[in-house]
Amino acid sequence: MASTLTSRRRSRRLAADAGLLVVAAAFVLPLAWVILSSVDPHAGLQVKTPDGITFGNFSAVLKPDITFTPLLNSLILCGGGTLLTVVCAALAAYPLSRFTSRLNRPFLLTILFASSLPITAIMVPVYALFVRVNLIDTMQGTIFFFAASQLPFAIWLMKNFMDGVPRELEEAAWTDGASSLQSLVRIVLPLMAPGVAVVTVFSFVMMWGNFFVPFMLLLTPDQMPASVSINEFFGNRGMVAYGQLAAFSVIYSTPVILLYVLVARRLGGGFALGGAVKG
Amino acid sequence: MSAGTGATRQRVPGRPVGVRAASAHRGGPRRSLTRALPVAPALVLLLLFLAGPIAYCAYIAFTDLQLTGQAHSSFVGFANFRTAFKDEAFRNAVWLTLVFTVLSSLVGQNTLGLALAALMQRASKPVRTLTGGIVITSWVLPEVVAGFLLYAFFRREGTLNAILDWLHLPRQNWLFTLPILAVSFANVWRGTAFSMLVYSAALNDIPKEITEAAEVDGASGARRLWHITLPMIRRSIGTNLMLNTLQTLSVFGLIWVMTRGGPGNRSQTLPLFMYEQAFQNSMIGYGTAVALLLLLVGSLFALVYMRLLRTEV
User: Which regions span the lipid bilayer (chain A) (predicted)?
Assistant: First the structure.
């Protein structure tokens, strides 16, 4: 009985492996295309072994107007937005986690509700509103909107992480006369550093990949982040240079993949964000 | 993460007395105001840039605001909504959004995510790591990049047709003949990782003894899945379905890059329809009315999602 069970398990593991590999093969094809095409001197739309390896595609796109300016714009937008999000979320999470108030629960429920609304749906009114208040086509306006759209989820996450920091550690500081702000910055935040890292990386990754918000709120080509400028490879420049498009995609995607790996490692496995969303 | 969830559960009543005692001497309503002060920056941002636009959305949906001549907009009541329900293109967009959501989110991401998570429970470690890495990479990639990769995959000269040729199967111009199917697959490719992560976490929470006992009793794989696994993770299924649907409802960039809603309007889901009405046809009022409907549907799902969470939090 025991041996049949083990052998059944082994054959089941083989079946599971085979199943996963089939899915992995299907999923890897588009990824293989972008990697192989980026070093292929004659890249097309198909996955194929490159006709020799070249870095010509990379050197062709590594120019100020194609890569550096859009990436710098992305960095300003997402860096600014993330900084604003994390600071505001940490400040807001502190009283929510530490002090009793009748308003805590309704506030948190509203936050949770707001975090699941489809932001895409409000972009047309945001555009109209930004035209009225002269924030259209400004970096700061886009940063503010990025921060506001990411804040609900960031506050929710931050509060949950903060709840995990024991209060006893803070009480000592309170009796020594430390203010709330001091104990937040010196005691609570360092103790929940992995949590802060998750919120930071998550916000940054969401903004870095966001296309619709800058697409709607920015108009001047010089201000466009990489997520919008990548469309320039199509249309305006005539023939599409797929190798260069692939090379640019690789450059543009690398930061978020590295950030994700960094956070996933830190928290043991990639389940952090999935679990976080679950509540 | 479980630590965070656990702490949320023991909420307000379970608060230690120490906190109250330590700060009791400050006293008074002024104290609670000082305490709430750190929430202010977040609150201001949220009110100005999130609540503001939502309120503005609800207002201009009832006006005939246009891209040009801002000053002349006037209140038109439900006219925009009446136009929408009579508009063939709007009904087309609703239908395509429904197809897109059901195919890619309910059927695709959800089922494939669960299947992957279940297989991962049994698979060997290297295969699990490899597959997980690949699937998660497609999830972490920026939306527009994902769009390009799948555009290349589905194009006439793309990888899919090359494979079909190799298998001696008929090729298709996927983005032309079945654009909604192509973008749905693209969304499955991009979004499955999330379901996989949620379900992996849920399956790990099922005590081993229960499945093993059933296995020893001779319950088949399908029966174990139906009678044990699925009932035990039903909460995760609920929240995952809601979050997938909400994410799918707001997909814009992926479809925009792959098909621009075309050819014609055969892959024009509601967000793309809304964009076209507001900017290509300059009817901001009408576009916003559509946006408001989308927002209402989204809110409905968000409420269901919160309802499901309430039993957990």
Answer: 14-36, 71-94, 106-130, 142-158, 196-219, 239-263
